[in-house]
UniProtKB/TrEMBL annotation:
Its EC number is 3.6.4.13. Belongs to the helicase family. SKI2 subfamily. This is Exosome RNA helicase MTR4. InterPro entries: Beta-barrel_MTR4, DEAD/DEAH_box_helicase_dom, Helicase_ATP-bd, Helicase_C-like, MTR4-like_stalk, P-loop_NTPase, RNA-DNA_Helicase, SKI2-like. The lineage of its organism: Eukaryota, Metazoa, Chordata, Craniata, Vertebrata.
Length: 972
């Protein structure tokens, strides 16, 4: 019976599969310091042998095919590698400590420090303000005591500046490297962005030879769709002898991440999770019932008056300081203005606020001090009210952070970005809404986002508890509320994707290649972890298959296959019947039709009308929508405006309702027609037709008669005739089969059917296993390499060319397009100001309300750039990459070209702010990113020896790097 449903059913793989191969090559003493490849094909991709004596992985040659069975798999490699142990710690210790704290450490902090003392990497997963930084500080103290270097990385420059100030006050021997600011680069402890560390690893910086510990702050940033890949690249590139401290928000799969680090670097790791909380469902339901009973009169939709009342109540009950989270910059400012009538500061606090503010803005010019944002914010701050969002001037944001940390602000209106980074807890957190716009849809915030923001409530050593207030309306269901408050945090899932900068850098260095990066990524590791489960699934299916015994199995299988063929042929006949040219003449009002979609079976309904719809797809056939009166559940009829119709459950009274149905969802067309009333709006008229349908079903107990495709519909297609002949032949075989008249037919047939379904499950699981063993994104890598070869960035043998070396210098903009523009001479004839303005298209990412009217001196270079981009999009599409030309071009936004051009020509900041509706803080962020791109363009021009172009980009930096746009951080 092994062959009943396919040959070799129980081997895990029938066919060969493509896998990456391992090939033993002589070990070579190399580090990961990124030496360039030789310029010949002999310099192939190599990787130093794993420390456990395993074989080296070589991807330079074409992978061979091999057959793999479940028994061949080394499942131990993919099983959980981290043992869960309870570590007993005590408040005191007998050994020499590297750092002392003036407070009693929490158990999770003591566990983490114990691991660090044992030179073990540690992942600390805890909510905001729980005290994770304590663990990082101890690792830094340990490294400094041992005369080793330590690197502290953070996701963004602003946070790096804050952390630098914190670390400098604690350890003194601290430096900062963020690209635009470098302070004391020879220090033992270096604070930097993750991108800087990645760049150092690719360039083989000597610093890395001396580094013993690397601290990754906010490691949950690794799931960021755009920048998360940088964290994975960096962790993979780091040497095995470096130890890590990962600080993360609460993540449910912390253990899985720890396993990846152990698997990647052959280290012993410790994972410490810290969280608490309970959900009082009875209280929540009571609160929601009050809202529902109150209806519109109890509006708690988060209107201005509600925010005003709640903030006032918080102050009256001494629950301040409070952080009020809103999910848009404009809302933040609007709510702050609503409460600006209130005053939370004493006179002495007002004087302190003014002194701090004046000292902060003292570095600005007199003209910049008169900017509306600067002038308008001080009266609010003196009242103890602050605003914090991405549209604020950076110097104001930092001033507000300092004032809040000193207790001089009692109410801070902030967007969710304030939930990330420096430790600034409050006693109370207020959410003005449970919904946010994520760039695509309006949705409820996730439980992970809630945990991160609500974690700000409660100050260590000051409050016995934190208070979180949620402004919701009656539209939030208890299920949504429970998921929000009790649901788990967002998992740390890999956002790994290939970038051209990554591929080119990996082709440039000798020890690691792009294929290795793919195989070792967290993305691939999470994929591999499914293997043991899939193998277990196959074994379970096999056991189920063998447990089913069928008498006279061979004969039963033959009969089963005949019935299966008849069912298949029946579907082919239905396809003919459902062709519009054949079925539309028979869809008269009153015709009985059967309606079924993937989720719901409505059974028989009555045709009311049909209409033709234009298909949005070019050169495609028109769509037909049939209006059918079907039996629906009362709930779906009531919510018809927002929910799709659902069939009435068996035994439910339900209600007949006219529902628009796509033509292909009509599974059967009956020869029966019913009389329908002219007006179907009255409920009784519709229900009368339900009784008529039920009468028809009683009259035909063997099934409602269907239209015959030949006799009734007159279809004369020769292909249909062949199908009908096949049906007749199979029916003859079925009726003459001895099993057809057997009294046990149904029981043995159902067993055979069950066994066939299990056989299909085995085949599906085998395909799943085959897919799970493959290296993901390998096809995308081949396509990207094809693009690089066709554009001249790499040779056919994957040796990097001059263009490729230039592109390696660019990571803050589209490296392919910028390199093509350099080699096409697009920048040669542009002035410094024009070139700078054009480069702004690569760094501005926000949505502006309207497109500026550009002068010809800016529009002409923009057109040239777009033509160049179109060529890259075409080459990418030809190389089988999913690239849409319009989408690719739209990512280069010229909305600030005129603003940057004016700024480069010496305009004041006040003048350029009047030219656009973009927030001041967003303009400054764009300018600072632009300076980073200009620095990289200088390096790119230098790489090809083009001094004139290098000087042009350098002059561009000089022209934009001035005044408030590049005012120094208050933390430095």
């Amino acid at each position: 019976m092994a062959d009943a449903f396919g040959d070799g059913l129980f081997s895990v793989f029938d066919d060969e599969q493509q896998t990456t191969t391992s090939k033993k090559i002589p070990a070579k003493a190399v580090g990961k310091n990124g030496t360039d490849k030789d310029a010949g094909p002999s310099a192939r991709v190599k990787r130093e042998a794993d420390s456990d004596g395993g074989e080296e992985v070589v991807f330079g040659k074409k992978p061979r095919h091999e057959a793999v069975s479940a028994n061949d798999l080394n499942l131990a490699e993919f099983m959980p590698q981290v043992k869960v142990e309870q570590v007993d710690t005590v408040e005191g210790c007998s050994h020499e400590v590297k750092k002392e704290y003036p407070f009693v450490l929490d158990p999770f902090q003591r566990e983490a420090i114990l691991c660090i003392d044992n030179n073990e990497s540690v992942l600390v997963s805890a909510h905001t303000s729980a005290g994770k930084t304590v663990c990082a500080e101890y690792a830094i103290a340990l490294a400094l005591r041992e005369k080793q270097r330590v690197i502290f990385t953070s996701p963004i420059k602003a946070l790096s500046n804050q952390k630098y100030r914190e670390m400098y006050e604690e350890f003194q021997d601290v430096g900062l490297m963020t690209g635009d600011v470098t302070i004391n680069p020879t220090a033992s402890c270096l604070v930097m962005t993750t991108e800087i560390l990645r760049s150092m690893l690719y360039r083989g910086s000597e610093i890395m030879r001396e580094v013993a510990w690397v601290v990754f702050d906010e490691i949950h940033y690794m799931r960021d769709a755009e920048r998360g890949v940088v964290w994975e690249e960096t962790i993979i590139l780091l040497p095995d002898n470096v130890h890590y401290v990962f600080l993360s928000a609460t993540i449910p799969n912390a253990k899985q991440f720890a396993e990846w680090i152990c698997h990647l670097h052959k280290q012993v790791g410790c994972c410490t999770e810290h969280f608490f909380g309970d959900f009082r469902e009875d209280n929540f339901n009571t609160a929601m019932q009050v809202l529902r009973d109150a209806g519109d009169s109890g509006s708690s939709s988060g209107g201005p008056s509600s925010v005003f009342k709640i903030v006032k109540m918080i102050m009256e009950r001494n629950f301040q300081p409070v952080i009020i989270f809103s999910f848009s910059k404009k809302e933040c400012e609007a709510y702050a203005l609503q409460v600006s009538k209130l005053d939370f500061n004493r006179d002495d606090e007002k004087r302190l606020v003014e002194e701090v503010f004046n000292n902060a803005v003292d570095c600005l010019s007199d003209e910049d001090k008169k900017l509306p944002q600067v002038e308008h914010v001080l009266p609010l701050l003196k009242r103890g009210i602050g605003i914090h969002h991405g549209g604020l001037l950076p110097i104001l944001k930092e001033t507000i952070e300092i004032l809040f940390s000193e207790g001089l602000l009692k109410a801070l209106f902030a967007t969710e970005t304030f939930a990330m980074g420096i430790n600034m807890p409050a006693r109370t957190v207020l959410f003005t809404s449970a919904r946010k716009f994520d760039g695509k849809n309006h949705r409820f915030i996730t439980s992970g986002e809630y945990i991160q923001m609500s974690g700000r409530a409660g100050r260590r050593g000051m409050d016995d508890r934190g208070i979180v207030i949620f402004m919701v309306d009656e539209k939030m269901s208890p299920a949504v509320g429970k998921q929000l408050l009790k649901g788990s945090a967002d998992p740390l899932n890999s956002a790994f994707h290939l970038t051209y900068n990554m591929v080119l850098n990996l082709l440039r260095v000798e020890e690691i290649n792009p294929e290795y990066m793919l195989e070792k990524s967290f993305y691939q590791f999470q994929h591999y972890r499914a293997l043991p489960g899939v193998v277990e699934k196959i074994k379970k299916y096999e056991e189920q298959y063998h447990s089913i015994e069928i008498p006279n199995e061979e004969g039963v299988v033959t009969y089963f296959k005949i019935r299966q063929q008849l069912a298949k042929l029946g579907k082919e006949i239905q396809e003919f019947i459902h062709k519009p040219k054949y079925c539309l003449p028979f869809l008269q009002p009153g015709r009985l039709v059967k309606v079924k979609n993937e989720d719901a079976d409505f059974g028989w309904g009555v045709v009311v009308n049909f209409c033709k719809k234009t298909n949005v797809k070019v050169n495609s056939e028109p769509l037909y929508v049939v209006e059918v009166l079907v039996h629906c559940s009362k709930d779906s009829v009531k919510d018809a405006a927002t929910e799709a119709a659902k069939p009435a459950a068996p035994g439910e009274t339900g209600e007949m309702q006219v529902v628009p149905v796509m033509l292909h969802l009509l599974t059967s067309i009956s020869s029966v027609r019913l009389y329908i009333p002219k007006d179907l709006r009255p409920f009784d008229n519709r229900q009368l037709l339900l009784k008529s349908i039920q009468e028809v079903q009683k009259r035909f107990p063997d099934g409602v008669p269907l239209l015959d495709p030949v006799d009734d519909m007159g279809i004369k297609d020769p292909a249909l005739k062949k199908v009908i002949q096949k049906v007749e032949a199979f029916e003859h075989r079925m009726y003459s089969h001895p099993l057809h008249s057997d009294p046990n037919l149904e029981s043995v047939y159902s067993l055979c059917e069950k066994k066939a379904l299990i056989a299909a499950d085995v085949r599906t699981a085998k395909r799943e296993l085959k897919k799970a063993r493959t290296v993901l994104q390998m096809d995308k890598l081949k396509c990207r390499k094809r693009v690089l070869r066709r554009l001249g960035f790499a040779s056919p043998s994957d040796v990097i060319e001059v263009k490729g070396r230039v592109a390696c210098e660019i990571s803050s903009g589209d490296e392919l397009l910028l390199t093509e523009m350099i080699f096409n001479g697009l920048f040669n004839d542009l002035t410094v100001e024009q070139a700078t303005a054009l480069l702004s298209c690569f760094v501005f990412q926000e949505n502006a309300s309207e497109m500026p009217k550009l002068t010809e001196q800016l529009a002409a270079p923009l057109r040239q750039m777009q033509e160049c981009a179109k060529r890259i999009a075409k080459v990418s599409a030809d190389a089988k990459l999913e690239v849409d030309e319009e989408t690719y071009l739209n990512q280069f936004k010229p909305h600030l070209m005129d603003v940057v051009y004016a700024w480069a020509n010496g305009a004041t900041f006040a003048q350029i702010c009047k030219m656009t509706d973009v927030f001041e803080g967003s303009i400054i962020r764009c300018m600072r990113r632009l300076e980073e791109v200009l620095r990289q363009m200088c390096s790119a021009a230098k790489a090809i020896g083009n001094t004139e172009l290098e000087n042009k980009f350098a002059e561009g930096i000089t022209k934009i790097k001035r005044d408030i746009v590049f005012a120094a951080s208050l933390y430095l």
